[in-house]
Each structure stands twice: as structure tokens, then as C-alpha cells.
TrEMBL record:
<dbReference type="Pfam" id="PF02653">
    <property type="entry name" value="BPD_transp_2"/>
</dbReference>
<dbReference type="GO" id="GO:0022857">
    <property type="term" value="F:transmembrane transporter activity"/>
</dbReference>
<keyword id="KW-0472">Membrane</keyword>
<keyword id="KW-1133">Transmembrane helix</keyword>
<feature type="transmembrane region" description="Helical">
    <location>
        <begin position="30"/>
        <end position="51"/>
    </location>
</feature>
<feature type="transmembrane region" description="Helical">
    <location>
        <begin position="57"/>
        <end position="78"/>
    </location>
</feature>
<protein>
    <submittedName>
        <fullName>Monosaccharide ABC transporter membrane protein (CUT2 family)</fullName>
    </submittedName>
</protein>
<feature type="transmembrane region" description="Helical">
    <location>
        <begin position="177"/>
        <end position="199"/>
    </location>
</feature>
<feature type="transmembrane region" description="Helical">
    <location>
        <begin position="230"/>
        <end position="248"/>
    </location>
</feature>
<feature type="transmembrane region" description="Helical">
    <location>
        <begin position="85"/>
        <end position="103"/>
    </location>
</feature>
<keyword id="KW-0997">Cell inner membrane</keyword>
<feature type="transmembrane region" description="Helical">
    <location>
        <begin position="260"/>
        <end position="279"/>
    </location>
</feature>
<dbReference type="InterPro" id="IPR001851">
    <property type="entry name" value="ABC_transp_permease"/>
</dbReference>
<keyword id="KW-1003">Cell membrane</keyword>
<feature type="transmembrane region" description="Helical">
    <location>
        <begin position="286"/>
        <end position="309"/>
    </location>
</feature>
<feature type="transmembrane region" description="Helical">
    <location>
        <begin position="109"/>
        <end position="130"/>
    </location>
</feature>
<keyword id="KW-0812">Transmembrane</keyword>
Length: 344
């Protein structure tokens, strides 16, 4: 038998109202996003010819791979109560430099190893600035992203466009399929699985989430919060390099005019926030990031199929990002979160 409950107490408990916010917060946001994505697909199928074709869905998944990988790295940083605006500069800059070195005759594996090492260094710099020098993450990563792509442009690039050699490993990232699944989707799928295992089943992953949920408590209990912060930025930087390679592999080339504010950055942020990774830190799942990637991929595809101008597409994407941030702020009020774990 359960504990005895007095009538007055039972009446009081029965009258305690449950707000809509509390009800929604109890539901895994990934499922909400998947449901919304399915609804958008149904409406899109009715209004857009060939939208529901197998070939179009394959295209959506392939084109979503790069920003999905980037969003996973961004999500890891945000879970630890940080933010990284350098990932586009690091990823696209690494792709530019790699192709430039290959164009000059450097073996591909050496170029990839060199730029992966530079990406690792950029992640360490970000982490050290934020964790040890306590530079606000917003400004530290904004600066390193601009330095990365600007420095690569000045030091290594001599053409306006670099093409991906057809026989290269980078080209292989998007060529063909395995069991009917495009290779970019397989690469992104592997990243999602590894990230899920890391966050859910390893001590560093669980500590990163605990650190984002309550930084002071994590530090008092002995968690190595500063090294963990550095680790999140290293992970984001290395995944950015991979995302850059996947992106140029799909496109077949990279332009030297791209900037650290490339739309892929804001797409990755949108994916993370839509997927339920709270900007307050400590909340969110890799499944949610996957759901956010699918939603944004479907949305982008519909915008293109309807022939909307770039300005209108940016307007819609911006509105979606604002709506996602507003929903996150409503679901996790800043007054509560700030009292618990401090400002970014």
C-alpha cells in the first residue's frame, strides 16, 4: 500500500494547475519536431510536384549532411553552456586550404592531416580563451572564425574557385551510395551515432551536460570544468573540418569569397535550437539535433523547389530561427536559468 494521504492534501494536489509550458517541457522535443516535419511534408506534397519522390528525399538527406554534422558540434558546445561562431570559418577555411594545397601538388592525406591539425589548434584556442581567460564565448569564437578564414585567404589562396579532384578522398565522400544510402548520409549518420554514445554513455559527455545545467555545482563536485569546456570546442572544430569537406564534396568546388558568416553557420544554429538544445545549456539530445536537421532540410528543399529568391529564403530562415529562440526562451525562462548557472 502507498503512503496515506489526507483528504485536504489530496484536494490541494488535485487543484495544482499544470501550465502548458510544463506539459510541453515534459515531452522530448525531438518528437514534436518530427511530427511538425511530417506535417510539413504532407502539406509540401500537396502543393509541390515531385516533392514526395524518393529521389527528392535522397537529395534532402544528402544536402542536410554537412550542416547536420556542424550542428552536432555546435550542440555539444551549447550543452556545456557555450556557443561557437567560428565553426563555419574553420570548416570552410580548412576545405579551401586543403584544395589549394592539393592544387599545388601536396598529397591529399598530408593536406587533410595539416588542416585537421589546424582545426584542432583553433578548437584549443577557443576553449582556452573561454575556459581559462574567461573571454565571453560569443566574442572569442567570433574572432577566431574571422581570423581562420581571413588568414587562410591571405596566406594560402591564389584562385577564386578551387575544384574538388574527381579521384580524391574528398570527392569520395559524396560519390555513390552503400545499399542505396548516399555516402554523405552515412558519414552524417556515423557522426550522430558516435555523438549520441558520447553524450549519453561516457563520463565526459555526462559531465558536459551537468556542467551546462549548473556550472558551479559541477565545479564544486570536482568535475574538471575547464578542460571539459576546452573539449567541447575541440569537438566542434574537428566536426567543422569534416562538415567543410562534406560540403565541398557535394558542391564539387569551393569559392574563396565565403566568409565566417556563411549561411551554414546559422543553419547549424537553427538546427540545434529547433532540435531542443537549450541556449541556457544542459538540455537537449542528439536525437533532437537529428530531428532539427530533417526539418531544416525539408524546409530548405521546399524553398528552393518553389523558386523563391535568396532574399525571401533568408527572410523565412531568419523568422524560423527567431521563432525557435523565442520558443526556447519561453520553455526555459532566463530568470530561472541565469540564477542557476550564470550568463554566457
Amino acid at each position: 500500500m502507498g503512503p496515506r494521504q489526507f483528504p485536504a492534501q489530496a484536494t490541494l494536489d488535485a487543484k495544482v494547475p499544470v501550465s502548458p509550458r510544463d506539459r510541453i517541457s515534459r515531452v522530448e522535443q525531438a518528437y514534436l519536431v518530427i511530427g511538425i516535419t511530417a506535417l510539413v511534408c504532407v502539406v509540401g506534397g500537396m502543393l509541390t510536384p515531385n516533392f514526395l519522390s524518393f529521389g527528392n528525399f535522397t537529395s534532402i538527406l544528402s544536402l542536410s549532411a554537412a550542416f547536420g554534422i556542424l550542428a552536432v558540434g555546435e550542440a555539444v558546445v551549447i550543452l556545456g553552456k557555450g556557443i561557437d561562431l567560428s565553426v563555419a570559418g574553420i570548416g570552410l577555411g580548412a576545405a579551401q586550404a586543403t584544395l589549394a594545397f592539393m592544387h599545388r601538388g601536396m598529397p591529399e592525406w598530408q593536406a587533410i592531416a595539416l588542416l585537421a591539425g589546424l582545426g584542432l589548434l583553433a578548437g584549443i584556442v577557443n576553449g582556452v580563451l573561454v575556459a581559462y581567460f574567461e573571454v565571453p564565448a560569443l566574442f572569442a569564437t567570433l574572432a577566431t572564425g574571422m581570423l581562420a578564414i581571413g588568414g587562410i585567404d591571405l596566406l594560402f589562396l591564389s584562385q577564386n574557385v578551387y575544384n574538388v579532384p574527381g579521384s580524391s578522398l574528398i570527392a569520395e565522400l559524396s560519390s555513390g551510395s552503400v545499399l542505396g544510402i548516399p555516402r554523405p548520409v552515412l558519414v552524417a549518420g556515423a557522426v550522430f551515432v558516435v555523438a549520441w554514445l558520447f553524450i549519453s554513455y561516457t563520463s565526459p559527455g555526462r559531465l558536459i551536460r551537468a556542467m551546462g545545467d549548473n556550472f558551479d555545482t559541477a565545479r564544486i563536485t570536482g568535475a574538471p570544468v575547464r578542460p571539459l569546456q576546452v573539449l567541447t570546442y575541440v569537438i566542434a572544430a574537428l566536426l567543422a573540418v569534416l562538415a567543410g569537406y562534406v560540403a565541398v564534396s557535394i558542391q564539387g568546388s569551393v569559392q574563396t569569397t565565403v566568409t565566417s558568416f556563411d549561411p551554414i553557420l546559422f543553419t547549424a544554429l537553427t538546427v540545434a535550437v529547433i532540435g531542443g538544445v537549450s541556449l541556457s545549456g544542459g538540455r537537449g539530445t542528439i536525437l533532437g539535433v537529428l530531428a532539427g536537421s530533417l526539418f531544416v532540410g525539408v524546409l530548405n528543399n521546399l524553398l528552393v523547389l518553389h523558386g523563391l529568391s535568396t532574399a525571401v529564403q533568408d527572410l523565412i530562415r531568419g523568422a524560423v530561427l527567431i521563432a525557435a529562440i523565442a520558443f526556447d526562451a519561453w520553455l526555459h525562462p532566463r530568470n530561472v536559468e541565469t540564477e542557476k548557472s550564470g550568463e554566457l
